[in-house]
């Protein structure tokens, strides 16, 4: 079983990944500023309060780790101003991982990031740019920094996120010609992340995850 560091572990996909990894028998170091408030009980869980922009915090969190899941998010209210969290945190994480010799990174970005932007349908393009443009420009920079690294990376690009339990009936779209937007439960994204860490099936590749496709 692996020892995982989950960055952004207090909510959303990060918290779902903590739960999925624990259920699969892995040891998890849950990293977030509010990690102490994570309401899970498991002997394999370590809550690790820290700031993803702090090099000393990240360096400490990497000690003894086999793989890292980067699952950062920003509040909706912050989407309409400058967004730098994704790239700034990645500029801290990547060199720290390289220095520590931790090679495996699964980074959650999103459908519409990087080379998947061309797959956004014409009906979705304008509202996507208006709402998510600044954040996804920063996610582009995040992915580019990781691509330039020596790490064994996988980009997980979920579609529109929903709540609820994992269904196990999602699609893993790993060819650019198959990329499209759709709905996907956060719990399903987490299940994929844990499986990807276990198998390494998509090292050095981006994948889009959806359950139901949206109209283009």
Automatic annotation (TrEMBL):
Gene3D superfamilies: NAD(P)-binding Rossmann-like Domain
Organism in which the protein naturally occurs: Methylobacterium tarhaniae
Origin: domain of life: Bacteria
MF annotations from Gene Ontology: biliverdin reductase [NAD(P)H] activity; riboflavin reductase (NADPH) activity
PANTHER family, alphabetized: FLAVIN REDUCTASE (NADPH)
Residue ranges occupied by any NAD(P)-binding domain in the UniProt entry: 8-197
InterPro entries: NAD(P)-bd_dom, NAD(P)-bd_dom_sf, Polyketide_Oxido-like
Name recorded for this polypeptide: Epimerase
């Amino acid at each position: 079983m692996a020892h995982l560091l989950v960055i952004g572990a207090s909510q959303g996909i990060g918290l779902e990944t903590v739960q999925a990894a624990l259920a699969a028998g892995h040891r998890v170091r849950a990293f977030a500023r509010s990690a102490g408030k994570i309401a899970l009980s498991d002997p394999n869980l370590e809550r690790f309060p820290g700031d993803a922009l702090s090099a000393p915090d990240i360096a400490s969190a990497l000690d003894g780790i086999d793989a890292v899941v980067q699952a950062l998010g920003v509040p909706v209210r912050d989407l309409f101003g400058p967004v730098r969290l994704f790239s700034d945190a990645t500029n801290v994480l990547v060199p720290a991982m390289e220095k520590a010799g931790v090679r495996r990174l699964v980074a959650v970005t999103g459908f519409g990031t990087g080379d998947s932007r061309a797959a956004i349908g014409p009906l979705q393009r304008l509202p996507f740019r208006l709402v998510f443009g600044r954040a996804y420009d920063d996610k582009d920079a995040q992915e580019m920094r990781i691509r330039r690294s020596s790490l064994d990376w996988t980009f997980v690009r979920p579609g529109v996120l929903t709540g609820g339990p994992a269904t196990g009936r999602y699609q893993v779209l790993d060819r650019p010609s198959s990329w499209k937007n759709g709905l996907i439960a956060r719990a399903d994204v987490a299940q994929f992340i844990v499986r990807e860490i276990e198998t390494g099936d998509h090292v050095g590749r981006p994948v889009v995850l959806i359950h139901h496709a949206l109209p283009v």
